[in-house]
Design a protein that fits this description.
It is built from three helices and 41 strands. The strands form four sheets. The protein has a 24-stranded parallel sheet that branches. The chain is globular and about 80 Å long.
Length: about 500
């Protein structure tokens, strides 16, 4: 997938510079190269520029690039940093041998804005893999305990760990927008803790390595970490070695602040490429392998999520029912032909010890296309599991190879509490919705037999006859005719 920069971004950047330079706001700006730029090693110049008292630092374009060693900076605050288009912040070969060497780490940044449309952070993934086959800590860009930090427009390539790493349980009000995070070793983005995080119009792709390999990973380190008011909007995760989105909540308990995470209008495609490793799914949610009796609460909501080119499963969970709830609303899933896995799978949290009910998942107005003859929903229970609880669904299934009797698999489920799953099965994809303002050429007569799967208008000049079904849960289907409408 190619990311094209809207020209308005450049205009906004230039406008911001103009205001700083010529407007009424008193501002001091400086070019980073004025601090002693050296084409072979610009580490010290960049550090000095960022630590300076200037409130606007421009990392100016240099044809040779900004070649640097590891950079960690503390307490950078009240500053705008602008990477000019074409700038490459490049990791110097041989300088990142230490396992935890970071290209750029900002510890305790405050009131900081970084603009980098057309600029790139580039590390040397192959070099670090040769040094350490399990490389995972050589992060491209880390924000630790950041407050009021905005980062826009950067491209991050080929780290020996995560592209973006957000940590620190005092992190608050972070905005990441228009980032393109490509070919990382561990995850595109890993979030340890965040209170107020907006990730907007960002791509996380091509992650591949022996550790994790997710596009987006939530990975708390302790009960004081938090995911509060976390929003992903118009983001994409695709072509990653493992899941598009992974929640590994092992270290959170009921003493942790309830989760509040929303994915809205996001897109996942062709993840879990490295089939030799589990979980082989687009979305993985687990509350941990030990914390069954006092799990973290809250809600994770997926709204208008589109998942395509699914290799195995769309969603897997081994979550107890009263852990953080998972909600899917108005989502669309398409599984690639040849997959033998159930698109949605829920598995007992533990096969060895007695655990509470599995569940706490809901699906509303969900469409699913797949072609294997197996169930669309598989529940893998065990005698150690109390049962299944709080699982609801409203599905439109397109699959010519299943019937109502084999659409859902329940294995070793001892009891059912608030389990209500409704579905309709189509043998072929429904027709596309009508164009706005009308669904026909307004011929004299119109005979409708195809089922309606979305809101819209069907019109005829004289007579309209409908013998179909309406199979969706939102909006209105309107039938219009000049003479007569007959519903059968």
């Amino acid at each position: 997938m190619t990311i094209k920069l809207p020209s308005t971004k450049i205009v906004l950047l230039l406008t911001a510079l103009s205001v700083l330079a010529f407007g009424k706001i008193e501002a001091s700006q400086v070019k980073a190269s004025s601090f002693g730029y050296n084409s072979s090693d610009a580490t010290d110049a960049l550090k000095a520029a960022f630590r300076s008292n200037y409130d606007t630092v421009i990392v100016d374009y240099k044809a040779a690039g900004w070649n640097v060693g590891p950079i960690t900076l503390f307490d950078i605050k009240n500053k705008v940093i602008i990477f000019e288009p074409g700038v490459v912040l490049r990791a110097i070969t041989g300088r990142f041998n230490a396992r935890n060497a970071k290209l750029l780490k900002l510890a305790r940044p405050l009131n900081l804005t970084i603009l980098g449309y057309g600029a790139k952070f580039k590390m040397n993934k192959a070099e670090y893999t040769n040094l350490d086959p399990n490389t995972e800590y050589r992060v491209s860009f880390e924000i630790q305990h950041g407050v009021n930090v905005t980062v826009k427009g950067l491209t991050l390539e080929e780290s020996g760990g995560d592209g973006v790493y957000l940590s620190g349980n005092t992190s608050k009000n972070i905005v990441l927008e228009d980032l393109n995070v490509i070919n990382q070793s561990r995850s595109g983005i890993t979030i340890i803790s965040a209170d107020g995080l907006l990730v907007k119009n960002c791509d996380f792709s091509g992650t591949s390595g022996p550790i994790v390999g997710s596009g987006i990973k939530f990975e708390p380190h302790g009960i004081d970490d938090k995911f509060i008011d976390v929003r992903f909007e118009d983001c994409r995760a695709f072509d990653n070695g493992q899941a598009g989105i992974t929640f590994g909540l092992n270290h959170m308990t009921s003493a942790t602040a309830p989760l509040d995470v929303v994915f809205k209008d996001c897109y996942l495609s062709n993840n879990s490429i490295e089939s030799r490793r589990n979980p082989n799914t687009e979305i993985m949610l687990s509350n941990g392998t030990t914390n069954y009796f006092a799990p973290v609460g809250g809600k994770i909501r997926f709204e208008n999520l589109v998942v395509e080119n699914v290799r195995k499963s769309v969603f897997k969970t081994r979550k107890v029912y009263n852990a953080v709830k998972a909600e899917f609303v108005n989502c669309s899933f398409k599984v690639k032909p040849g997959s033998l896995a159930a698109p949605i799978a829920m598995e007992t949290p533990n096969y060895r010890i007695n655990v509470p009910h599995l569940g706490g998942v809901s699906f509303a107005n969900t469409s699913l296309e797949y072609s294997n003859a197996g169930p669309f929903l598989a529940i893998y229970g065990s005698p150690t599991m109390a049962g299944l609880r709080d699982v609801t669904g409203d599905f439109l299934i397109t699959n010519p190879n299943i019937t109502e009797d084999d659409a859902i698999l329940y294995t070793r489920v001892n009891s059912y509490i608030n389990v209500n799953i409704n579905f309709d099965i189509l043998s072929a994809p429904p027709p596309p919705p009508p164009p706005p303002g009308g669904g026909s050429d307004c011929s004299n007569t119109l005979n409708i037999t195809a089922n309606e799967t979305s809101a819209g208008i069907r019109e005829a000049a004289q007579t309209l006859t409908a013998s179909n079904a309406i199979l969706h849960s939102s909006g209105t289907v309107t039938y219009k005719a000049g003479d007569k409408v007959t519903l059968k």
